[in-house]
Amino acid sequence: MRNPPLSRDKIRGTVHVPTPHDSAAKQVAGEALYIDDIPEAKDLLHLYIAQSEKAHARLVKLDVSKVRTAPGVVAVLTAEDVPGVNDAAPIAGDDPVFAEDTVEYGGQSLFAVAAESLEQARAAAKLAEIEYEELPAIITVEQALTANSFVLPSREIRRGDATKAIKNAKHRLTRRFEVGGQDHFYLEGHVALALPGEDGDMFVHSSTQHPTEVQHNVAKFLDLPDHAVTVEIRRMGGGFGGKETQGAWFAAIAALAAHKTGRPAKIRLDRDDDMIMTGKRHDFVITVEMGFDDKGRVSGAEFILASRCGRSVDLSASINDRAMFHADNCYYFENVTIISHRCKTHTVSNTAFRGFGGPQGMLAPERMMDAIASYLKKDPLEVRKNNLYGKTNRNVTPYQMTVEDNIAPEIIADLEKSANYSTRRDAIRAFNKTSPYLKKGISLTPVKFGISFTASHLNQAGALLHIYTDGSVMINHGGTEMGQGLYIKVAQVVAEVLQIDIERVKITATRTDKVPNTSPTAASSGADLNGKAAETAALALKKRLTAFAAYNYGVTESEVTFLPNRVKIGKQTVAFKDLIHLAYMNRVSLSATGFYRTPKIHYDAETYSGRPFYYFAYGAAVSEVIIDTLTGENKVVAVDILHDAGKSLNPAIDLGQIEGGYIQGMGWLTTEELFFDDKGILKTHAPSTYKIPACSDRPAIFNMKIYDRGENVEETIFKSKAVGEPPFMLAISAFNAIADAISSVSDYQLYPDLDAPATPERILFAVQKISSASQPEKVTEAAQ
Length: 784
Ligand code: MTE
Ligand code: QUE
Ligand code: MOS
Hints:
Layout: H1 24-29, E1 45-51, E2 57-63, H2 65-68, E3 73-77, E4 102-103, E5 109-115, H3 118-125, E6 129-134, H4 141-146, E7 150-159, H5 162-168, E8 171-179, E9 191-196, E10 202-206, H6 211-222, E11 229-233, H7 247-261, E12 265-268, H8 271-277, E13 284-292, E14 298-310, H9 316-325, E15 335-344, H10 358-376, H11 380-387, H12 408-418, H13 421-434, E16 438-451, E17 460-467, E18 473-477, H14 486-498, E19 505-507, E20 510-511, H15 526-553, E21 560-563, E22 566-569, E23 572-575, H16 576-585, E24 591-597, E25 602-604, E26 609-611, E27 615-628, E28 634-643, H17 651-670, E29 701-706, H18 732-743, H19 760-772, E30 780-781
Parallel strand pairs: 1-12, 10-11, 14-15, 18-19, 28-29
Antiparallel strand pairs: 1-5, 2-4, 2-6, 3-5, 7-15, 8-13, 8-30, 9-10, 9-12, 11-20, 13-14, 16-27, 17-18, 17-24, 21-22, 22-23, 25-26, 27-28
The structure holds ligand MTE, 3,5,7,3',4'-pentahydroxyflavone (QUE) and dioxothiomolybdenum(VI) ion.
Residues 209, 241, 244, 352-354, 356, 522-523, 725 line the site of dioxothiomolybdenum(VI) ion (MOS).
């Protein structure tokens, strides 16, 4: 065998190297294919869904006969046409795809029209004769609490005696605040394309984070075994949690149309329909009471977290659990009670959204730290530091997990310094003294976010790796790509293990027939789980190739070394692709699967105790804002972030996640306001009334850094940490900075009541309230 060139010792795109997203150039050029870009077959049917106009009503009449005879209509699908089970819920079996006797939210699907064109389907849907008998509708959390309306029983975590500790504390404060929901506003709305096959088989392209669940739901809906249904997703135009469960409804409808007609069928929601029909982040009403000493150290804390779940369970159990698990954030609360109410309302069923309840839970202690600091006339950062988890004591969470990897103190200290926190805080206070209308505010908030699905069984993943005879490699795994860079990270892992350039590694669409029984790509664990599964597969092939090389060249296995794009075997060196070809000629299998399950985690869902998380991801942010006290207008002007990604798999991707997460969190807490009228109808269902951050809202000063001492103490994939969700919560600093700016109006004597999102309207109200309050806020000093 001839000697290959030995020129290059650097391989492109291995781990820890900033490597561009595999789709970036294609996305910019418009060449990346989404489901709606797949060339349409001549006989493709287009689907439109007719929606309920009432939040809660009995369906007295649903007559679709005029729809059936409308021009272009090929089929009309109602609950009666479902051959299997009329449900596409993830867990509880309570999400009918088509309404039966009653409707439980405005926008609920009544029936679907399949026509030659979307325009025809939409026009025909209007011809249905529908009569409702309206029933009393519960819309808000407060209404649900009054009516005892819950989708699930209330839950509680309790350690020590919080009531007593609060009573005995020198100071105590109570706060109530509302936290709004959030629409996912992915660029690509929900979409599914179903292609009928032989024997009743069904192939579905679905924009989903959970292809396996779509497969199960389509199979159940059509009364088919799972093996008859294949689901594929190459990429989503954003998911953010919104495509974890509810994409199944649309996949099921497209599949039913294909099943009934034998023709391919597509359903694609436009923006308004997507916003009206599908679930969002849970909004919460939160009450917190804390007792504390002169230093602001909390001795007792009581949280009541009540969320709007909507009409069905969806993932509300896990979401509200995660809210409870993050009500501590980075702080040790010795005596603590966390109560969670899961309210049933006649609104769309709320679902996963980046952070998965964590952001809502975490806002509670972060608001309280500032309220306490204001009350004690201290720097909020000092109060925070007085409450941080310790390294060896004061380090057990309310759910009995020991915080072993606490780097919050270091991250906070580094950021405080690099962002010039105290100097800027002083300068802002000086500015506010002389500026009558414009007021500035600043805040530093930390994040500690638990990594792993709290539903422990989901912490598993599989991968499939092929090497072809030309030395090119194909990797497939159970994770889905929604823009977060999972595919490139997993390809980097394979390139690293096999020591080959990333260009040799083909990343292929996620399909249920390649890797079965997958978990949703969620809980930020996509790279942790699928990266490990891919590593396992690559190591298996490497081991096989090593054994073959040793045998073939008559050396020991320890004399076989994988060098960049080549393999050293004894004294010889052969190109990777030549070794592969040789292995094939000698009948060595060049395909392997890999499997991974997260170790160490265990947790008792009944008592809320154990180790639900493999580890924590940390970060901290300083945000500086300016508000106009005459108009309520506001702007985040400067942001400094220090975020822990462990040993980052791909610093370029991770910085993108940090920036995107912060900005999305900023939108949630400042401009994005969902408004349901008193009949429960969503009035903000388009960008005209629902404001996500624009490019111009990106802070002019935006310093982001990955914590360079970061290294996962656990054996995660190349010591990296999950990064998808945690940075979202860094935006809490923007909200608190706004509150700080408002507080300046009272010369920092009062801390404002401010609900999220801090829209100009709310800021204006808060400013007015605080300026007119002549009395200090109502607080009770404990009798000593
Ligand atoms: N980034 C982009 N660009 N698009 C997305 O839809 N989803 C977020 C986060 N980052 C999302 C994203 C959410 S909700 C999660 S759980 C993680 O990515 C999922 O991907 P990962 O586990 O591979 O990080
Ligand atoms: C974080 C998450 C998820 C979670 C738990 C977390 C998540 C998710 C589920 C889940 C739970 C039970 C199921 C299921 C999904 O749990 O995204 O299908 O049966 O989907 O801590 O992000
Ligand atoms: Mo992310 S909310 O776990 O999809």
